[in-house]
Every structure is written in structure tokens, then in C-alpha cells.
Design a protein that fits this description.
13 helices; two-stranded antiparallel ribbon; mainly alpha; Farnesyl Diphosphate Synthase; globular; about 65% helix; about 280 residues; about 5% strand
Length: about 280
């Protein structure tokens, strides 16, 4: 369900692409430093968006550098580090753990079991630092799993559960911006869930898996799906535009007004920077 909040690279300048990549690499580096090499397997561009949004809002002090890594040993890549890079790295590990655990329990994937085992040991540290976010991840994913198991025919119910999860992730600190970030995150999470359902519709039908649009019983209807998506993203951007963002605003605009729509056109999620 992750991997949809990405940029449209074709519309980024060279400088913007380098900045975007440096934030992604910063999260990857942070996961390696404080978790493990294997923990980086669950890295998602969604968390690069999270870090960039919070860095643009709060403008923290940044540390920058260049390093080679296991995946790119020859060409050194620029990275950025900050309080919000570290936050995004921890959220990425937590989400990757619960996602891998879900894949193992639902589909019996051995690779998912191994990944969940590698990530589990890092969760107590993250829980201690971010109990509200970790509780939201668990509760929302449990509610989502229950709705999917009962083949819920109302797309808004599972979308709302994922929206609540995303709302809590966007709120790093309970301050004056928290209500706006929650509204934005709630709509963004709903959008991601519904986009995933539209992209996976044919695959889910072939494999007999839950899909809210299948459960509705109305058949494949891309135009109706787009109505849901446009309305939901409209709510997200309405809240987003209320935030006093300057740094990296152009990249964030690219993601929310262009990048998130690429997946509906291509029918697949974006790859990672390591591809």
C-alpha cells in the first residue's frame, strides 16, 4: 500500500531531483546507522515526502554529506540528516515491520517472515520514542485487516482507517500545526488506499483478494474511481496549502499535484532510488 507518494521526475529540475534524492538517501543512511542493512529493504519514497514536508514546515538544522554505500559503492551519493530525517527513518522501519508481518500472516511469504524478524528488534526503541504513532499504526492496521476480512463493501471505511494512520504519522509534535497536518494526513491516507485499490483491481480479482471496489459490486469503473481520488486529494491539498511552506515547496507541489497521479496512468507503483 506504500510507494504512491512520489515525485514526477520528468518535471523536476536537476537541483530538485538531487535534493529529493539526498533526503531519500539520508533516510536510508539513518536506517543503516541505527537499525541494520536489512532494515533498508522496506524503504519507501513515502517517507521521503514525510521528512521533506516536516523539514519545510519546521526548517531544522541540517547536516549534509556524501558517501558510497553497499548498493552504490563507486559513485558517492549526497545525503541530508536532520531530526525529521531520523523520524521518517523510524516510521519507515515500523511500517515495514507491520507490513512484512501482514504479508507473512496473510500469504505465508517466507521473505516477509525473515524481514519481519529482522525489523522486530528495533520496534521497542521506536515505541519508546513515539508511542502515539506506534499505537496508531497497530490499531489502524488491525481495524483495516478486520474490514478487509469481512469484505467491507464501503470503500470509505477501510480508506478512513488508513487515513487515521497517515494522519498520526504526519504529526511529529502536538503544536499549532497538528490539526492541519492531521486533516492533510487523513485525506492523503484515504487517497493512497483508494489509489492502491484502483491499481490492484485486476490483480486482486484474479487472485480472489479483497479490494473495496470489487466489494462494491459495481464492476471496473476507472472514471468513478477517479472521482473518489480527485475529491480526496482535493481535501489533502486544501489543508496542505494552509501550511507556511517555503523550502522545498516546489518539490512537494510536484508530488501532490503530479507525482501521485502517475500510478493510475501506469498501473504500478514507483520503484525506489536503489533500482
Amino acid at each position: 500500500m506504500f510507494g504512491y507518494i512520489t515525485a514526477n521526475y520528468g518535471e523536476l529540475t536537476k537541483e530538485q531531483a538531487e535534493r529529493y534524492g539526498s533526503i531519500y538517501c539520508g533516510i536510508c543512511r539513518e536506517i543503516r546507522l541505527h537499525c541494520s542493512q536489512s532494515a533498508r529493504l522496506g524503504l519507501s519514497y513515502d517517507m521521503a515526502f514525510l521528512a521533506m514536508l516536516l523539514m519545510s514546515l519546521y526548517e531544522p538544522q541540517e547536516q549534509v554529506g556524501k558517501n558510497g554505500c553497499l548498493l552504490h559503492p563507486i559513485r558517492r551519493r549526497p545525503w541530508v540528516d536532520s531530526e525529521y530525517i531520523r523520524y521518517a527513518a523510524d516510521m519507515n522501519v515500523a511500517l515495514a515491520y507491520y507490513n512484512a508481518l501482514d504479508d507473512w500472516e496473510d500469504d505465508g511469504r517466507q521473505a516477509a517472515r525473515i524481514l519481519a524478524g529482522a525489523l522486530k528488534k528495533h520496534c521497542p526503541r521506536i515505541e519508546e520514542s513515539y508511542p502515539r504513532q506506534m499505537n496508531a499504526i497497530r490499531e489502524c492496521l488491525q481495524r483495516l485487516a478486520a474490514l478487509e476480512k469481512e469484505n467491507c463493501p464501503n470503500p470509505d471505511e477501510p480508506a478512513a482507517a488508513f487515513g487515521e494512520l497517515m494522519a498520526e504519522l504526519l504529526v511529529h509534535t502536538e503544536d499549532l500545526w497538528a490539526p492541519t497536518l492531521r486533516r492533510m494526513g487523513s485525506a492523503l491516507g484515504r487517497f493512497v488506499y483508494l489509489m492502491d485499490a484502483s491499481v490492484d483491481y485486476d490483480k486482486d480479482r484474479r487472485h480472489g483478494k479483497y479490494n473495496p471496489f470489487l466489494a462494491m459490486g459495481t464492476g471496473k469503473d476507472p472514471e468513478k474511481w477517479r472521482e473518489y481520488l480527485v475529491m480526496t486529494m482535493g481535501r489533502c491539498t486544501e489543508a496542505y496549502e494552509r501550511l507556511p511552506l517555503v523550502q522545498d515547496k516546489a518539490i512537494l507541489d510536484n508530488i501532490l499535484y503530479s507525482g501521485v497521479w502517475i500510478h493510475q496512468k501506469t498501473g504500478k507503483k514507483e520503484g525506489t532510488a536503489h533500482d
